[in-house]
Amino acid sequence: MLKILFVCHGNICRSPMAEFVLRDMLQKRGITGVEVASAATSTEELGNRIHRGTAAILDRLGIDYSAKRARQITVSDYAEYDLLIGMDTANIRNMTRYWSDKQHKIHKLLDFTERRGEDISDPWYTGDFEKTYRDIKLGCEGLVNQLTKISALK
Hints:
four-stranded parallel sheet, Rossmann fold, alpha/beta, about 15% strand, globular, single chain
């Protein structure tokens, strides 16, 4: 079982969008053996539902997210997950402050694409949930392609 944790600041916009988009991609491609979750680096939104902008996109895609509530990363997440994927440079900085990344598990989502090193903009500030969705979809597609190449997931 491969376990992936997406991380952003509040766990109400980008990381839950990535969580549910990736789950949907995996299911549609018949890929099993992957567990996907998401969490926040901050405590600001703990227990809250996902942002209405993210909800609108997931609703349009027919993806159920109803049980999702924001949670914060924990110390044990580092041992529990195989990949810890942040959305931007600030997330990565906060993650590496929280966990010593001796096993090189921490990555940015767009590092799985030709846009390596780029950030996924935070729609909380930009208001552009569609751009965030396009970038997350691109990153998730790149992640799935890399995973299937190296591990022959089925």
